[in-house]
Structure formats: structure tokens, C-alpha cells
Design brief:
repeat; LRR-SigEffector_domain; 41% helix; 459 residues; Leucine-rich repeat, LRR (right-handed beta-alpha superhelix); globular; LRR_dom_sf; coiled coil; single chain; leucine-rich repeat; alpha/beta
Length: 459
């Protein structure tokens, strides 16, 4: 690169590098970005508070003026109450507003980092020889035209345009109403037209290995879609409307830049059996994912996961779970992991897990287990080296010992309670007996008792 040493180029690169470093520094100062569920919850809570505020103000305005209170005094009283209600609402909203503001700041500074990095790349590219090896943009692909013409004459069910270097897809594709399968993988598509929502019968859609930065909201209209592959693109997020594709059985969104999944994903996709989300930037999984009772395969390796949802044990049909290579982020697992009774394969390698959950020994069907590259203490390394059965046996014995210890402590507490109860009953009985005896003695010795005239006679 002959121009890389030019003073102006070096100055521009230095400035761009400085911008990247400064913006990253600000992001680090802000701390962790709120996860998508927290942001959604904040929006929901703010809307709920505003709704309650409107109702309270309406009730206040319609409240009758008490007798004996003049109108001016009543208006002043209403104004004070209105101010109190608004102040209380603002106090409730402050925490949720803070969450949204922090998320917005992360979003803004994240864009600045991206822009600075892109500017740095452009400067570096311009410093090259300047040769333009790019291919001419293909306006119309003859094969695509042929497919559209054929579709007019007869109903097409399957179209395969894999690896055709397509840069765009005509809107007319959405009119092939009988289409069941569409393969557009391995092209250069940057956009999927909204018109694809017209493919009402579509069951399989493969747009993997393209240049997509987003999916259209209209994708939620594909009610019969069973298999969706959008892996190997540039997606930063999935549209919430994807939750409406309730017929989905397989969803592959791996090898993108996803920072989160839609909050309601698990609430709606109850038929999903395979979910591939590896090679993204996911920091957490939505709690709703635990409602995917049909899920059999979950691959979330190479992300930034800090843990798994506490209710993951509800995925009782899960057979394969891969959360390897979340590196320093994944440090522990929930106790409910032991409730995955159908789990056959589990990969936890390349994380920072120090102890398996005590319930681990309950995974009776587990056949394959990878625990490499973890600072495990429980179970010890010598047990891990003996294989999956040795690990299950060790953890099962540990769980049994723990239950026995808890039962022993419980029995001690019961015995102590019984002894306390006996002592209390004995003390009560003794007090009652003493009281009775006291009353009897008083009856014989007290001044109020009967007198004997012979003994009292003076001598």
C-alpha cells in the first residue's frame, strides 16, 4: 500500500483510531447494557403507569364536591391532589426511564463506534493501490426472469436460486402463491422484499449466507412457515413479528450479530423443535424460551451468555444442549438443569464453570458430556476424566448425601420442637397443679374458712 505512509493518510487514521478508542471508553464507563427483556419490561411499565395516571386523574376530576366546601377551596384541593398523583407517577417512572436512557446511550455510542470503525476501514482501503476489482451490479438475472415467467404459466412449488450472486429479488416473487420452498442462500441480497409475505403457503425459506442486516416485519405473515434459515448474515436483531410464525419447527439464526432475541419468542413458538443461535453476541436468553415444550435441540455456543434461565428445566423434551465457548461470561448453571430428564448430549466446554449443579446426577439419559476447559472443582478433574457415567454417579451421590444431611437436620429440628412442646406442656401442667394445691390449702388455712365454736371458746 504505497499511500499508507502519506502524512495526511496517517493523520486521518490516527484521528479515526482516537475516535474509536474514546467512544469505546465511554461505553465501558456506562457499564453493562440492559438486556432486551429489561427494556421491554420498562416500556410496558411506563405505559402501565401512564394508563393508571390517566384513570386516577379522570376519577379525581369526576369526584363530587363535598357539601360545605366552596368551589374555590375545592379546586385548590383538586389541584394539590393532582400534583401529588403526578409526582408519585413520576417517581414510579424514574427507574424505568433510567433503564431506557441507559439503553439509548449504549445504542448511540455503539453507532458512533461502528461509524468510526467503518471510517478507519475506508481510509485503509483508500491507501491501497486503488484498483477496482468489483463486479458490475447485476440488474436483471435471466434465470430469475425465467422463473417468474414460468410461474405465470403454471404453479411452482419449489424454487432453488442458491449461489447465483443475486443482489436483489424482484417484488413479483411474492405473487408465486403456490410456492412451498424457496432457497436464496449463498447470494448477495441486502434486502428481502415485503412482498414475500404474499407466499401464504410457503413452508421452507432459506436466505442464509447473504448480506441481510434486517428482516422485514411482514415475515410474521408467513403462517405456514416451518423451516427458516437466516444464518450467516449481518442481523443485529430479529423483528418481533417473527413470533407470529407459529408453525415454525426449525429456526436457524446462527452466525449473525444478534445481541438479543425477541422477548415473546418462547411464548408463541410452541411447535419449535430445533433452535440454532450460535455465533452471535447474545448475553442472555429470554425467560420465555423455557416455554418451548417441543424443543429438542438448542445450540447457543460462541455467544456472551452469562447464564441460563432459571426455569430451563421445563424443557423436558430437550435432547441436545450446546452452550460451549461462552468463555469468561458463563460461570454457573441453574439447579433446574437436572430436570432435563431427556437430555442426551451436553457441551459445556470453554467456559468458567467451577461447579455442576447438585441435581446433575438426575440426568439419567445423558450419554455425551464435554466439560473441557473449565476450572471445575465439583466434580474434581479425576472424576471428569473417567467419563459421563462417573460424573453422574459422583453428582448423584453428592445429591443423596445432601438430601440425607437436610433430612438429618430436619429430624433434629422436629425433635427439638417436640422436646420444647413436652417441656411446655409439663410446665403448664405443673403450674396448673400448684394452683389447685394452693387453692386447696388456702381453703383449709384461710381466714374465710369455717370456725369451730369449741376451739374458739374462752377459758
Amino acid at each position: 500500500m504505497p499511500h499508507l505512509s502519506h502524512p495526511k493518510v496517517l493523520a486521518s487514521m490516527t484521528h479515526a483510531i482516537y475516535d474509536v478508542a474514546q467512544t469505546r471508553s465511554v461505553l465501558q464507563t456506562l457499564g453493562p447494557r440492559p438486556d432486551h427483556e429489561s427494556v421491554d419490561m420498562a416500556h410496558h411499565k411506563l405505559a402501565e403507569i401512564d394508563s393508571n395516571l390517566s384513570k386516577s386523574l379522570e376519577e379525581l376530576v369526576l369526584s363530587p364536591r363535598p357539601e360545605g366546601v366552596d368551589q374555590a377551596e375545592w379546586r385548590a384541593n383538586l389541584a394539590d391532589k393532582e400534583q401529588q398523583i403526578r409526582q408519585q407517577a413520576e417517581q414510579e417512572k424514574s427507574m424505568y426511564k433510567s433503564i431506557l436512557q441507559l439503553d439509548e446511550m449504549h445504542e448511540a455510542y455503539g453507532k458512533l463506534v461502528k461509524q468510526a470503525e467503518e471510517r478507519l476501514v475506508k481510509i485503509y482501503e483508500k491507501a491501497g493501490e486503488g484498483a477496482d476489482d468489483s463486479e458490475p451490479v447485476e440488474e436483471t438475472n435471466p434465470e430469475v426472469v425465467g422463473i417468474l415467467e414460468e410461474a405465470q404459466g403454471k404453479g411452482l412449488e419449489r424454487v432453488d436460486l442458491c449461489g447465483r450472486k443475486l443482489r436483489y429479488l424482484p417484488e413479483a416473487f411474492g405473487k408465486i402463491s403456490g410456492l412451498l420452498s424457496l432457497n436464496l442462500s449463498g447470494n448477495q441480497l441486502e434486502v428481502i422484499p415485503d412482498s414475500l409475505a404474499g407466499l401464504e403457503k410457503l413452508e421452507e425459506l432459506n436466505v442464509s449466507s447473504n448480506l441481510l442486516e434486517s428482516l422485514p416485519d411482514s415475515i410474521g405473515l408467513l403462517q405456514n412457515l416451518k423451516i427458516l434459515d437466516v444464518s450467516g448474515n449481518k442481523l443485529n436483531a430479529l423483528p418481533d413479528s417473527i413470533c407470529y410464525c407459529r408453525s415454525l419447527v426449525e429456526l436457524d439464526v446462527s452466525f449473525n450479530s444478534l445481541a438479543y432475541l425477541p422477548t415473546n419468542l418462547g411464548n408463541e413458538l410452541g411447535n419449535l423443535e430445533r433452535l440454532s443461535i450460535y455465533l452471535n453476541k447474545l448475553r442472555s436468553l429470554p425467560n420465555s424460551i423455557c416455554k418451548m415444550r417441543s424443543l429438542r435441540f438448542l445450540d447457543a455456543h460462541f455467544n456472551e451468555l452469562r447464564g441460563l434461565p432459571n426455569e430451563i428445566g421445563r424443557l423436558t423434551n430437550l435432547e441436545v444442549l450446546n452452550v460451549c465457548s461462552n468463555f469468561s461470561d458463563l460461570t454457573e448453571l441453574p439447579e433446574t438443569l437436572g430436570e432435563l430428564t431427556n437430555l442426551k448430549e451436553l457441551d459445556l466446554s470453554n467456559n468458567q464453570i467451577q461447579a455442576l449443579p447438585d441435581t446433575f446426577g438426575r440426568l439419567d439419559n445423558l450419554k455425551k458430556l464435554n466439560l473441557e476447559q473449565n476450572p471445575l472443582v465439583i466434580p474434581p478433574l479425576e472424576v471428569v476424566e473417567q467419563g459421563v457415567d462417573a460424573v453422574k454417579l459422583f453428582m448423584a451421590k453428592r445429591w443423596a448425601d445432601k438430601l440425607a444431611e437436610e433430612e438429618r437436620k430436619s429430624m433434629i429440628e422436629v425433635n427439638e420442637e417436640e422436646e420444647k412442646g413436652w417441656l411446655t406442656r409439663s410446665t403448664t401442667w405443673l403450674k396448673r397443679s400448684v394452683s389447685v394445691v394452693g387453692e386447696t390449702v388456702s381453703g383449709y388455712l384461710g381466714t374465710a374458712g369455717p370456725t369451730d365454736p369449741i376451739l374458739d371458746e374462752e377459758r
